[in-house]
Design a protein that fits this description.
Layout (H helix, E strand, L loop, with lengths): L6 H11 L3 E5 L5 E6 H9 L19 E2 L4 H5 L8 E5 L5 E6 L15 H13 L7 H14 L3 E5 L2 H11 L7 E5 L5 H8 L3 E5 L10 H7 L4 E4 L11 H11 L2 E5 L7 E2 L2 E2 L6 E5 L12 E5 L2 H11 L22 H12 L1 H19 L5 E2 L7 E2 L6 E4 L1 H4 L3 H10 L5 E2 L17 H9 E3 L8 H14 L3
Parallel strand pairs: 3-4, 7-8, 7-9, 9-10, 10-13
Antiparallel strand pairs: 1-2, 4-5, 6-14, 11-12, 11-16, 13-14, 15-17, 17-19, 18-19
Helix pairs in contact: 4-11, 5-11, 6-7, 6-10, 12-16
The structure holds pyridoxal-5'-phosphate.
The site of pyridoxal-5'-phosphate has 14 residues, from helix 6 and helix 7.
Length: 469
């Protein structure tokens, strides 16, 4: 870009190129300097406007190299803050650039944050509405309700508190049982335990990895009050037979959709199908607010109760008057500002997830010993984390060995969750074979929505190389 541009122009350039850096070129075509997205962020935080000249922000000294320099000497120039080096010809014109090898660090999931997020958070800071009142929380709730096709979306401080609010709003407490899949993140069970109720663990289905329907039926007792299906790794649970069981036994259904923004069951948004749905906006989730959560429901009475419980149990219209025990589980405007920006591009994020899944599917489909994630005929899987199952016998290496060897090549992966019935705080003598096998052999691959095609191909190639039978 030209040196005459503004900070806004630089942001656009960076957004388009998605390498985190803009080069400034003088009128004579010579390289003048560079700005990183971090430089722009710091300038804005110092009070510079978006229309300020970028020339004010440009680094006094930028690391450059000659196009004729050896790769080794260029490699030595990379630092934490120097990830793209312009390569100049003798006239000082940029003819190429050397990029830090991304293999060094390919995380499982990193947030996709851009100009819009910065703009809204800045608006929030500048306006002074940084606590939980002000326009952004409402905007976030409205945009999310529309996204899920529900009447009410209520923001909470995180996914776990949203789930706790769901349990409280349904009146679940001591002596009650709630059926949860054993293969899930610990928060699903903890939210039950917070109320004094007991989580009852069931196995999962081998194809969708979500709650196993026959096991649910078998686990219902006279104390059962609710079922929490989890839309694990972005694949919806099989809601239709689950709702039938719930109806037959008069149980509530609370969908844990923390990992499944945009997933569909029979064309319907997850979260909108049961009595209540919850979502998480933690940093590695499909959309993020740093920390954050959302509860969705079509039930007016539940929504009213949740709003009261979220805000210290304060009686509506009667400030500082409390007839029930409530909590401070509110989301801040700063977080909601991030959330609004994320939701404005949620379709793009979901498309990126689907695209990543397609590339992985093509790249990994013929490798013996690798099972790819399923997608039931009634489902839209949004592949929060693209996850595979490794049969150690057929692949020639165990899941843990694969993890270690990929780590050496800078490819970060995550093992599946340990099943809840094996976790020290919930350990019991249950044997849930599918959950146990998946937990021991499942692996989540890098899945950030801004991953580039060549990075995914590199992961596939690395896995193919490790196969040895
Ligand atoms: C992330 C997650 C949660 C909890 O969300 P937080 O926002 O981290 O509290 C709950 N359930 C599942 C399945 C999750 O993956």
């Amino acid at each position: 870009m030209s040196t005459d541009g503004t900070i806004r122009d630089a942001m656009r350039t960076i957004d388009r190129a998605s390498v985190g850096v803009a080069f400034l070129i003088g009128a004579d075509g010579r390289f003048v300097g560079l700005v990183t997205d971090g430089d722009l962020r710091r300038a804005l935080l110092k009070g510079q406007g978006l229309d300020a000249p970028v020339a004010d922000v440009v680094r006094p000294v930028s690391v450059t190299a000659r196009i004729s320099d050896s790769p080794e000497s260029i490699a030595e120039l990379f630092r934490e803050e120097v990830r793209l080096i312009p390569l100049l010809d003798t006239a000082g014109k940029v003819v190429n650039a050397a990029a830090f090898d991304q293999r060094i660090a390919l995380p499982v999931a990193s947030p996709w944050i851009g100009e819009r997020e910065l703009q809204y958070v800045t608006e929030c800071v500048v306006s002074g509405w940084i606590s939980s009142t002000g326009p952004f929380v409402h905007r976030f709730e409205e945009i999310f309700a529309r996204f899920c096709g529900v009447k009410h979306a209520i923001a909470a401080s995180n996914g776990t508190t949203a789930l706790h609010l769901a349990m409280l709003a349904l009146g679940i407490g001591s002596g009650d049982e709630v059926i949860v899949p054993s293969l899930t993140f610990i928060a699903t069970a903890n939210a039950v335990t917070y109320t004094g109720a007991t989580p009852v663990f069931v196995d999962c289905d081998p194809d969708t990895w979500t709650i196993d329907i026959p096991s649910v039926e078998a686990a219902v007792t006279s104390r059962t009050r609710a079922i929490i299906p989890v839309h694990l790794y972005g694949h919806p649970a099989n809601m239709k037979p689950l709702l039938a069981i719930a109806k037959r036994h008069k149980l509530a259904v609370v969908e844990d959709a923390a990992e499944a923004h945009g997933a569909l069951f029979d064309g319907k948004s997850v979260g909108s199908i049961g009595d209540i749905g919850i979502f998480s906006f933690y940093g590695n989730k499909i959309a993020t607010t740093g920390e954050g959560g959302m509860l969705v429901t079509n039930n007016d009475a539940v929504a009213d109760k949740v709003r009261i419980l979220r805000d210290h149990g304060m009686t509506p219209g009667h400030r500082y008057w409390h007839t029930i025990l409530g909590y401070n589980y509110r989301l801040t405007s700063l977080q909601a500002a991030l959330g609004v920006a994320q939701m404005e591009r949620i379709d793009e994020i979901i498309q990126a997830k689907l695209q990543i899944a397609n590339l992985y599917k093509d790249g990994l489909k013929n490798i013996p010993g690798i099972t790819l994630p399923g997608c039931a005929s009634w489902a839209r899987n949004v592949y929060w984390l693209y996850s595979i199952v490794i049969d150690g016998e057929k692949f020639g290496r165990s899941r843990d060995e694969v993890m270690q060897l990929l780590q050496k090549q800078g490819v970060d992966t995550r093992p599946f969750f340990p099943p809840l019935h094996r976790q020290p705080i919930y350990a019991n003598d249950q044997h849930l074979p599918v959950s146990e096998r998946l937990s021991d052999t499942g692996l989540s691959l890098p899945s950030s929505s801004h991953l580039r095609t060549e990075q995914i191909l590199r992961v596939c190639e690395a896995i193919a190389q490790l196969q040895r039978k």
